[in-house]
Amino acid sequence: MDIVILIGFAAAILIGVSLGLIGGGGSILTVPVLVYILGVDPVLATAYSLFVVGSTSLVGAGTYMKKGLVNYKTAIVFAIPSFIAVFLTRKYLVPALPDPLFSVGEAIVTKNIGIMVFFAIIMLAASFSMIRNKKCVDCDENEPVKFNFPMIALEGSVVGVITGIVGAGGGFLIIPALVILARLPMKMAVGTSLLIIAAKSLIGFLGDVATQTIDWQMLLIFTGLSIVGIFIGSALSKKINEKALKTGFGWFVLVMGIYIIVKELMSI
Predict the structure, then answer these.
(1) Nearest Cα to Cα of residue 216 among 44, 32, 91, 2
(2) Mode of pairing for the β-strands spanning 107-109 and 102-104
(3) CB contact at 8 A, 57 and 169
(4) Is the peptide bond before 100 cis (omega within 30 degrees of 0)?
């Protein structure tokens, strides 16, 4: 097997480890790995990312369900508008994007470049969220959940559109929303987020099955390795300081986001 493919599959394990350790970040790594290491077309890579992150998050959510750390009412309130947004985005918006998107003088911005730059911007937003690593000081583990229904629904719709365009599960957006808007404790927010990511990503992937040619063998191997990784990450999470890990991962994502923007803009 080609060494580059081996590196790509090894990275799949790291994607699962990331999800197991901090409850997010998997999609931030998945698309760059698929595009830059395995040579997958960016639009197809966002579809693959939905399946990989969705399947891996579903396994991770199962462990939180067993511990009673998933708030199903919150998941439903957040997820319904998100489901609709991600499915419609993958089914209609992404295929409708023109290629090239636009041109400025002799510089032509293709659909693939546009998607990768937009993805990199989302990576920068994720990195700032993880580096700041703010905790909800007012959150009480025993306090009843309080819903801000309009804001939760709006946040779900926004995350759904972003998920649809770039194939990102959106954990870095979902978790703060659950903590701030629904006042969920952090661990329950992570468990609930994984369930939302799983359902939303897999539903979004359904919008691609009819429009994309899927390499199921490669996708299932990659996903299987990622699932192995989430078990490793869950085990390691008990031994590693979560705050330090999240901050360090945030800096890594920041560097990756800047690299992608520079690389894509230089190719114009």
Answers:
(1) 44
(2) antiparallel
(3) yes
(4) yes
Asked whether residue 137 carries a pLDDT value surpassing 60, the answer given is: no
Average pLDDT over residues 230-249: 77
- Those residues whose C-beta lies under 8 Å from the C-beta of residue 158, and which sit 6 or more positions away, are 85, 173
Note the pLDDT of residue 218. Answer: 92
110 contact partners, CB below 8 Å, separation of at least 6: 99, 100, 101
Residues 217, 65, 131: CA angle, nearest 5 degrees: 80
Q: Which residues contact 99 (CB under 8 A, 6 or more apart)?
A: 110, 111, 112
Higher pLDDT, 17 or 147: 17
Q: Is the pLDDT of residue 130 over 80?
A: no
Give the list of residues 6+ apart from residue 175 with CB closer than 8 angstroms, or none.
Answer: 23, 24, 186, 189, 190, 193
Q: Is the pLDDT of residue 138 over 70?
A: no
Percent of the chain scored above 70 by pLDDT? 89
Task: Give the integer Cα–Cα distance in Å for 195 and 203.
Answer: 12
- Residue 245 makes CB contacts below 8 A (sequence gap 6+) with 21, 22
Q: What is the DSSP string of 152-170?
A: HHHHHHHHHHHHHHH----
Element (H, E) at 228: helix 216-236
Per-residue pLDDT tens over the stretch 173-196: 777 778 777 778 877 888 888 898
